[in-house]
Structure formats: C-alpha cells, structure tokens
Amino acid sequence: MHITALKTYMQRVDDRPRLLVKIETSEGISGWGEAYNHGPDWALPPMLDYLFHQIEGEDPRRVEYLILKLNQQARFPPGALGLAAISAIDHALWDIAGKAAGLPVYMLLGGNVRDRVRIYCGVYTAPDPEAALDQTLQLNQDFGYTAFKLSPYRRDLHNSRWGELVKETGDYFGKIREITPSHFEFAFDAHAKIYEPYQAVQLAAAIAPYDPLFYEEPIRPEHIPAWAELKSKVTVPLATGESLYNRFEFLALLTARGADIIQPDICVVGGVTEMRRIAAIAEAHYVTVAPHNPMGPLATAVNIHFCATQPNFKILEYKPHVHAPWALDPYVPVDGHMQLRPDRPGWGIEIDEKALITEDYIHWERKITKKPDGATAYP
Prior knowledge:
The structure is a single chain. The chain has helices at residues 44-55, 63-72, 80-101, 105-108, 129-143, 162-179, 197-207, 224-233, 247-255, 272-284, 297-309, 353-356; strands at residues 3-13, 16-25, 30-35, 116-122, 147-150, 185-189, 215-216, 238-240, 261-262, 288-289, 316-318, 337-339, 369-370, 376-377. By secondary structure, the protein is of the alpha/beta class. It folds into two domains: 3-103, Enolase-like, domain 1; 107-346, TIM Barrel, CATH 3.20.20.120. Strands 4, 5, 6, 7, 8, 9, 10, 11 and 12 form a nine-stranded mixed β-sheet that branches. The protein has a three-stranded antiparallel β-sheet with strand order 1-2-3, sandwiched between helices. The longest helix is centred in the N-terminal third of the chain and has 22 residues, at 80-101. It is globular. The model has no long low-confidence stretch (mean pLDDT 96). Keywords: Isomerase, Lyase. This is Isomerase. Residues 129-237 form the Mandelate racemase/muconate lactonizing enzyme C-terminal domain. It comes from Pararhizobium polonicum.
C-alpha cells in the first residue's frame, strides 16, 4: 500500500472554519484528519500540498516514520501552521492504519484503558446565574453533562477597577454554586487575557472557596518561570497548554512545576504521535491531561481514541455542534461521556464527501481588545 493523493476541503462547523484533509492510497483505503484554524486558514492548503510531496508513494501505515520525516525535513522546527498541517496528516495516517488492520485506532495505540471518555461542555461565556442554571440543567438532561466551563469575566477587564471584577467573579461563582446541583463541576477559562501575574493570583483566590474544576490559562504561555510562580501562589488546579506546540515546551513547563493539568491540542502539536509523547512526560510528573478541543466532529473522534488509551487522562473538552453536515455519524455524548466504537475501524466516523463538494467556508478572525487609552490588549 502506498500514498497516492492528498485532498483538502475548506468547511465550517457552526460559526468557525474547519479544514479537512483526506489521504488516499493505492488500496482504495482513505484516511481523514482535521487541521487547526490558527487564523490564516487559506495558508494551509498550499502547505499541505507541499508536505504531500514528502510522503507521496510511502506506506501510510508507517506513521511514526512519516511524521518524523515531515518534522525533520524542515531546517527549523515547524511553527503553528506547519504543525497544524502535520497534525491533520498524522490523523489521516492513523485512520488509514486502523482501517487497513480492521481495528479502531485506539487498539493500535495499545488498547483502551477505560470504557468511555468523560467530557465537559464549553460554555465559554458568563451567563447570569439563573441562565447558567437553566443551560446546565438542559445540557445535563440532553447529554448527561456534569462538568462545564465558563468565563470568569463578568465585565470588561480594562474599563473598571480590577478589584471590582475580582469581587464580582467570586460572588458570581458563589451564586452558581448555591443554585446548581452540588455534583456539577465548573472550570473557568481566563483565555490568557491577564498580563500581570499578581492579578491572576487574585482572581484564583476569588474562585477558590467554591472548588473550581480547574483555572485555565490566566496568563500567556511564553514565560515559564511566571507559571511556576503562579502555581506556587494559587490553591486551585492550574491548567494550560493549548498554545504550546511540542513535547519540549511541555517538558519545560512540567519541569518548572508550572501546571496541575495540561491541555495540549491534538490538532496543534503534531497529531496523535506527538500528543502521546507529551502525555507520557506529564504522567511522569504526576500531571493529568485535559485536551483542548473546541474543534469539529472529526477532531473530537481523534481525541476520543487518544483519551481512551491515556492513563493520566482527566476530561475532554466538547461542545455540541449544530452545523457540520459532512459528519454523518458524529460521536454524541451519553451520560456525560463519549462511548467507544469497538466495531468500527479507524476513527469510527463517516465523512459525507458529497457534502464537501460545496465549499462551506466561513471567515472568522479573533477580535482585538482595545483599552480605554487606545492600546491593544490580548483578546
């Protein structure tokens, strides 16, 4: 068996663009992957065309070899776009390997260590407590969710006194705890908007009395010593990692004892192959893995197989999709978990190629926050 073609399809899931990748082989077996949309989405197809020539004619089942080749053929380490492209190729290669063997991918990774994969729902906003109660109860009723992720911000970060925001956040979480079922878990994603670490410590202290599931990415990821200091000063589980790219960056974070939970993205770091290395390093540091996954049904399928096999897996991010017509049979939560599909080879999800004939791209770009003085801030 050898690789004969690589095709890309620019699509969307709800209001976000998603790039799907199909790799075809001489035996008629094809595999699918999903690339992360960092922003310049149209830069990915030509990059993938270029990378295809590095693997054309190769045996797609040699996943480790081919991913090493793609990484090593570059003089310098791939950046965000390069790794997004390599991730999608990695996914497609594993899909082919599973289908060729007649097995789900998780069986090729050593087999499942759990029978199902727990998920949490990304709400991402900070609805009024009564609205949050209604929303979480509905999600619990429909899908069995018992874990959710909210924003800690009830007001603009820059247009008021910081202490007012901190108090409001603490009061807000306290009210949510008061009116929601006691077994519900709530995480808070600060989206790396806080520039000054002491403010991140203050915000952590405000939510600490109410037992958050975790406190995600309050500051930027680049300066590892700041994470080590931050973790030493907070009493809530500290999570980060969606903006880190490889095992070396995660090793630096973990060596510095900068996080309790890491959140690598399987569409960012280079696919399943690199994700497993990162998770193994975390396991050796007694750190759990809660993959970043704001993606589409295909990326969710890839994540489920990874999570099923990883001993130090904690919980997977997932938000129900409304518009993804190309996914014929997406994984759907049952009792707050994703069930494995042991009778389906590869990723266990069918892609409707007829739905891909029509380009369904939607433009999206991150909004830049402006401070009162006109300066920009992290969004």
